[in-house]
Amino acid sequence: MTDDVLLSAKGLTKTFGDFTAVDGIDVEVRRGESFGFLGPNGAGKSSTMRMVAAVSPVTSGELRIFGQDPATHGPAIRARLGNCPQQDRLDEELSVEENLWVYGRFFGLTRAEVRARADELLDFAQLTERRKDKVEPLSGGMKRRLVIARSLINNPELLLLDEPTTGLDPQARHVLWDRLFRLKRQGVTLILTTHYMDEAEQLCDRLVVMDHGRIVAEGSPRALIQEHSTREVVEVRYDVDDHGVHAGPLEGIGDRLEILPDRVLIYADDGDAAAGAVARSGTEPLSTLVRRSTLEDVFLHLTGRTLVD
């Protein structure tokens, strides 16, 4: 393991009794990367993140963070990590700045260091004007920005973000994306989990798609789209309850056909040509839309459209 590799996992496994949450995955994250774990609920993302955060023991396999084994060097690893869990877990009886002060003291920072660092982070998180306010009445987006600011109090080399924007409205999500992009530009290595496709495309240099505890694909968002989908997708809608009745006339158009309850998806490298073939198919669609293929198309192709309980 070189100094450039901050995280290395080989055959990493996590079980809970008879249930296997993480099933022998191999992962490597390099300094300065923004790396993502993408997958549906129950795919094993959060279990993986808890092992990487050195707060959950590895069942089997090898895990090294900063070249160290979390089983024997947990405190040293955690001192160099920033951790933003799914739940905010803020002290709502304290003010915004007091939450930062208290957390900073856990890392052994002096009072002067904590206050100076808190000032920087409040500005970064756009919370300077709310520094004296109690946490409880803050909006969800403000609380999430405060949690991220708190996770940066120790100047971490590696920042872990578990579902960082879940539950936030679109405006709050975009503000948070901007803050994370700034961190990446500053050289902080990011590892995040998400089930938002646009978030993964926006933030991740490289990612893995997980399903049922295993990695089913790995690469950059663009590379995954090129490998597992077509350049464009044609969405065709009809005035029928069962779109499957039009499957026959549309067969052979494009590379792949997918029948959904409310539309037919035609995967093709030339969307306009495929849309023209639909017009000549003898069917009468209500609408035909040509769009570029996205990471969501890859995700659903690899993991399916069935809900995971």
Descriptive report:
By secondary structure, the chain is α/β, with parallel strands linked by helices. It has helices at residues 45-52, 70-78, 96-106, 111-124, 140-151, 170-185, 197-203, 221-228, 247-250, 271-279, 295-303; strands at 5-16, 19-30, 34-38, 60-65, 81-84, 158-162, 189-194, 206-211, 214-219, 232-237, 256-259, 264-268, 287-292. Strands 5-6-7-3-8-9 form a six-stranded mixed sheet, sandwiched between helices. Strands 11-12-10-13 form a four-stranded antiparallel sheet, covered by helices on one side. The longest helix is centred in the middle third of the chain and has 16 residues, at 170-185. It is globular. Helix 8 crosses helix 11 (295-303). The protein has two domains: 5-225, P-loop containing nucleotide triphosphate hydrolases (Rossmann fold, 3-Layer(aba) Sandwich), CATH 3.40.50; 230-292, Alpha-Beta Plaits, CATH 3.30.70. The two termini are 37 Å apart. The chain has eleven helices and 13 strands. The mean pLDDT is 92.
Total count of strands = 13
Radius of gyration: 23 Å
CATH architecture of the largest domain: 3-Layer(aba) Sandwich
Q: State the secondary-structure class.
A: alpha/beta
CATH topology of the largest domain: Rossmann fold
Oligomer: single chain
**Mean pLDDT figure:** 92
The strand line-up of the biggest sheet is 5-6-7-3-8-9
Poorly predicted sequence stretches spanning 5 or more consecutive residues: none
Subcellular location: Cell membrane
InterPro entries: AAA+_ATPase (IPR003593), ABC_transporter-like_ATP-bd (IPR003439), ABC_transporter-like_CS (IPR017871), ABC_transporter_ATP-binding (IPR050763), P-loop_NTPase (IPR027417)
EC number: 3.6.3.-
GO molecular function, one term: ATP binding
